[in-house]
Design goal:
This protein has 185 residues and is an alpha+beta fold. Helix content is 19%, strand content 46%. It contains three helices and ten strands. Strands 4, 5, 6, 7, 8, 9 and 10 form a seven-stranded mixed beta sheet that branches. 23% of the residues are buried. InterPro entries: NUDIX_hydrolase-like_dom_sf (IPR015797), NUDIX_hydrolase_CS (IPR020084), NUDIX_hydrolase_dom (IPR000086), Nudix_hydrolase_domain (IPR051325). Keywords: Hydrolase.
Length: 185
């Protein structure tokens, strides 16, 4: 079923820290009017990187997660700076967080966090043909790099210290994308 998007009759905005909060006055096809709120990030989006050490092994990083007040395993990720492409941001973040650069960077898709109330999108970037190179980053301590086999994702997703939804989704997307590429050869 294809539906026409609701009509926006008005938008009011206010600052909410690093976000801009919008209130939308919407009218749906059936005449119902509602107010929705959504958050817009200030910036140029973000990247999440799946660095492949070899055809079967992704690199994870362990870093302090203030929201959970614990160390979490996850993927390299970060903001896209002004003037950067997602590929450039992914390469920079990979060098800052994991100490690797990539000769091959490919954006596979975008991932949203909570699309019913947030406009934020994260570009999923597959990084291959890695080489060692480190750039200074904004992390307060060097991150531990943890290799993980893609065929052991079932074990990874059951770990208490691997809970970030974008990392879980990104690894499954990449695993399936790589399987499809191998099958088409």
């Amino acid at each position: 079923m294809t539906r026409r998007l609701p009509t926006i009759h008005g938008i009011t905005e206010h600052d909410a820290g690093p976000w801009r909060m919008e209130r939308l006055d919407l009218e749906f096809d059936n005449g119902e009017r509602r107010r929705y709120e959504r958050l817009h990030g200030r910036g140029h989006g973000a990247v999440i990187v799946v660095p492949m050490l070899d055809a079967q092994t992704a690199l994870l990083v362990r870093e302090y997660a203030a929201g959970m007040h614990r160390y979490e395993l996850g993927l390299v990720k970060g903001r896209i700076d002004a003037g950067e492409t997602p590929e450039q941001a992914a390469d920079r973040e990979l060098k800052e967080e994991a100490g690797y650069g990539a000769r091959s960077l490919q954006v596979l898709r975008s991932i949203t966090l909570a699309p019913t109330y947030m406009s934020h999108q994260t570009h999923l970037v597959l990084a291959r043909d890695l080489y060692e190179e480190r750039l200074p980053g904004d992390e307060p301590e060097e991150l531990e790099v943890v290799p993980w086999k893609l065929d052991a994702l079932d074990q990874l997703i059951l770990r208490e210290d691997f809970s970030e939804g974008r990392s879980i989704a990104a690894l499954f997307v990449v695993r399936e994308w790589l399987r499809m590429q191998a099958a088409n050869r």
